[in-house]
């Protein structure tokens, strides 16, 4: 007599779980798509660096003031310094970008 009762409860539990699963799946599919990663610049370095490329390297606008450029340069160099395992090439490009943004050079190129 207890077996049909247990079987009935199991069927009811399975039906409720299936209903909940379908509702959860529909809510998951209906949610708006949110980009998870920031879109990065796709491309290599130009033969001669310009202000646009320098701004992209440092993560500032082309019209950024000197303080923002210096702050961004320090932040990027800490992450890419050759003494901390970074690349000498990238460090030279970062320094070149800072010089161009501060108006110290005309984009003569890096040491590499």
TrEMBL record:
By its UniProt entry, which Gene3D superfamilies does this protein fall under? DnaJ domain
Which CDD domains did the record assign?
Answer: DnaJ
Database matches in InterPro entries: DnaJ_domain, J_dom_sf
Q: Which domain of life is it from?
A: Eukaryota
Q: Where in the cell is it found?
A: Mitochondrion inner membrane
Q: Which GO terms describe its cellular component?
A: endoplasmic reticulum; PAM complex, Tim23 associated import motor
Q: Which GO terms describe its biological process?
A: protein import into mitochondrial matrix
Instruction: State any single GO MF term.
Output: ATPase activator activity
- What are the residue boundaries of the J domain, all occurrences included? 53-106
| PROSITE patterns registered for this protein in UniProt | DNAJ_2
| Swiss-Prot/TrEMBL keywords | Membrane, Mitochondrion, Mitochondrion inner membrane
Q: Which PANTHER family match?
A: OS07G0192300 PROTEIN (PTHR12763:SF60), PTHR12763
Q: What does this protein do?
A: Component of the PAM complex, a complex required for the translocation of transit peptide-containing proteins from the inner membrane into the mitochondrial matrix in an ATP-dependent manner.
Give the multimer and partner information. Probable component of the PAM complex at least composed of a mitochondrial HSP70 protein, TIMM44 and TIMM14. The complex interacts with the TIMM23 component of the TIM17:23 complex.
Protein name as it appears in the record: J domain-containing protein
The organism is Brachypodium distachyon (Purple false brome)
């Amino acid at each position: 007599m207890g077996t049909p009762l247990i079987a009935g409860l199991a069927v009811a539990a399975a039906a409720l779980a299936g209903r909940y699963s379908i509702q959860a799946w529909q809510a998951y599919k209906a949610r708006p798509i949110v980009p998870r990663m920031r879109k990065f610049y796709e491309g290599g370095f130009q033969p001669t660096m310009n202000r646009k490329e320098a701004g992209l390297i440092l993560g500032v606008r082309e019209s950024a003031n000197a303080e923002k450029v210096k702050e961004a340069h320090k932040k990027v160099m800490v992450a890419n310094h050759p003494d901390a395992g970074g690349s000498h090439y990238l460090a030279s490009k970062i320094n070149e970008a800072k010089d161009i943004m501060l108006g110290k050079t005309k984009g003569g190129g890096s040491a590499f």
